[in-house]
Design a protein that fits this description.
The complex is a heterodimer. By secondary structure, chain A is mainly α. Chain A contains three helices and no strands. Chain B is an all-alpha fold. Chain B is globular and about 60 Å long. The longest helix of chain B is centred in the middle third of the chain and has 26 residues. Chain B is 67% helix and 0% strand. The termini of chain B are far apart. Classes of the chains: A mainly alpha, B mainly alpha. At the A-B interface, helix 1, helix 2 and helix 3 of A face helix 1, helix 2, helix 3, helix 4 and helix 5 of B.
Chain lengths: 64, 197
C-alpha cells in the first residue's frame, strides 16, 4: 500500500498543485479565468497517467 | 449576472502559511519518492544541491518556500519526464530527457506562479523582465510567459548539469563534490542567458 502511494507521488503532487490553483482561483480570488494556468499542467498529468507509469523499481543508483 | 464559478465560497482561506506548508510538505514527499524509488544517494545529492541552488537563486532567503520551490519543481519535472519519455521511442535519450524536463518544469511552475501571484505569496524571484508579447495573455492565469521561460531554463540547466556529471565517468565522490560546487555558479549562468534573451 505504502509503495503504491510512493509510486504515484509525482502525479499526486501535480494534482495537489492544480488543486491549490483551483482553490485560489475559485474561492480566494473569485477569478475562474485563472484556472487556465493549470491547463498545460493538466495535459502533462494526463500524458503521464496515459504512459502508465508508477509501477516498477527504477535502477538502484538512479541517474534521475 | 455573475458566473456561477465566481460565486463559490469556501470556509478555508489559504494564506502565506498554507503556501509555505504546501511547498515544504511537497518537497519532503518528493524527497521520500527519490529516496524510495531511486536511492538515498540520489535523494541526498539532488535535494542537497537543489538547496544550494535555491540559496543562490532566490532573492528572499528568509522564506523557506522560496528556497525549496526550485528543487521541488525541478524534481517533479524530472520524475514526470522519466515516466513520460522513458516509455517511448526516446527511452535512453539523455538530450530529449533533459529538454523535456526543462519544458515540464515551466508547465508545472505555471499554476504555482499563477496562484502565488494572485495571493501575493513569496516566490523565489520577482517576475523576470522578459517581454514576450506573443505568449503573454489571460490564458496564463495571471502568470507571465517570462516566468515560464525562466522555470524552463532552470529545469534544463539543473537537470542538464546533473546528467552531465552523472555520465562523465567520474566516481560518486567527485561527482557529488562537483555537483555541489557548480550550484553557486548555475544561477549566474541562468541570469546571463536570461539577459541575452
Amino acid at each position: 500500500m505504502f509503495d503504491r502511494v510512493i509510486d504515484r507521488l509525482p502525479a499526486l503532487l501535480l494534482i495537489a498543485a492544480l488543486a491549490l490553483l483551483a482553490h485560489v482561483a475559485l474561492f480566494d480570488a473569485h477569478e475562474p479565468s485563472r484556472l487556465m494556468a493549470g491547463i498545460p499542467a493538466l495535459l502533462l498529468l494526463l500524458l503521464y497517467l496515459r504512459a502508465g507509469t508508477g509501477g516498477g523499481k527504477a535502477k538502484a543508483k538512479g541517474s534521475g | 449576472m455573475r458566473p456561477f464559478l465566481a460565486e463559490l465560497s469556501s470556509p478555508v482561506h489559504l494564506d502565506g502559511l498554507a503556501w509555505t506548508l504546501f511547498v515544504a510538505i511537497g518537497t519532503a514527499l518528493a524527497f521520500v519518492h527519490a529516496f524510495r524509488k531511486l536511492s538515498p544517494y540520489f535523494a541526498a545529492a539532488w535535494f542537497g544541491s537543489g538547496l544550494v541552488f535555491g540559496w543562490f537563486w532566490t532573492d528572499t532567503r528568509t522564506a523557506p518556500e522560496a528556497l525549496l520551490l526550485p528543487v521541488f519543481v525541478t524534481y517533479l519535472a524530472a520524475a514526470l519526464t522519466k515516466g513520460v519519455v522513458e516509455q517511448g521511442r526516446f527511452a535512453g535519450n539523455h538530450l530529449v530527457h533533459v529538454l523535456c524536463a526543462g519544458l515540464f518544469a515551466g508547465l508545472i511552475a505555471l499554476p504555482l506562479e499563477a496562484a502565488a501571484a494572485t495571493m501575493g505569496w513569496t516566490l523565489p524571484r520577482a517576475t523576470p523582465a522578459l517581454h514576450l508579447p506573443l505568449l503573454d495573455g489571460p490564458w496564463l492565469g495571471g502568470a507571465t510567459a517570462g516566468a515560464v521561460v525562466e522555470w524552463s531554463l532552470l529545469g534544463t540547466l539543473f537537470y542538464g548539469t546533473y546528467k552531465v556529471l552523472d555520465h562523465l565517468g567520474v566516481g560518486p565522490v567527485v561527482q557529488t563534490v562537483a555537483l555541489f560546487g557548480v550550484m553557486p555558479f548555475l544561477p549566474r549562468f541562468a541570469d546571463f542567458l536570461l539577459r541575452m534573451g
